[in-house]
Predict the 3D structure of the following.
Amino acid sequence: MTKSKKNKSQVKEKNVEVVEEEQSTLYYFYSVGCGFCKKAEPFVDEINAKGKYEILKLDLAEKDNQGLKNELSKKYGKQCGTPWFIDGSNGNQVCGFRDKEIINKWLEGEDVPAPPQPKSQPPKLPFHDASEKDINDWKDLYSKWVTENEHLPNLQPADKILERPRPKSDPPRPPVPNSTDEQYDDWAKKYDEWIEENSHLPNLQTSSQILPRLKNQNRPPQENVASGAMNPNQEARLSRLEQKMDKLIKHLGVK
């Protein structure tokens, strides 16, 4: 699918052709803090910069984008987390992170087979400073999981996984929708304490960075409509329309 199709209309007084862009149906759903989304982001920006295709970048912290994702999932009977690439016109998708070659095949309209899926979830990693017994128990469970999922590529050995930084405890659960400000503040306090306890972990976001997204995500849809806030793609479309209007006004000689 190309970046856009063109509809032509005439301004009779000056016989000026106005070109209106049809919105792209190539969607890329992402979430902030998603590691695989960060890996996919440069691909998307590179593709959009070339101009042949336009992939709309949709942050799932926005209620409108969540609604669109749910509609597409229901329409085409497909479920995916993030990142998720889907053509809204036909349901052709790429679920999860794939390399640039696969994304280009998707853009050309090819059906991309799903990568191999695990038969079950891997066992939860032991916490940082876990006892030797807990670590050995995890190794036994992981070994069984690897045997069950030997069809998966690039499975790493247990010792290699244990070299990664691990939390000392689970982070506090985020507030549920319709939580009070007091409940948000209570969560933020507990989360900041958890961050301090787990300062050895890289790239942790502070509660002040996370809270605005949580509140927006948990806000009832009618409040988002009432606020009049636009998501990034709406802002981009408005900007393109304003640029076209400026060109038209200059052509007509209007001051």
In short: The radius of gyration is 24 Å. The longest strand covers residues 6-11. Residues 1-20, 223-227 have pLDDT under 50 and may be disordered.
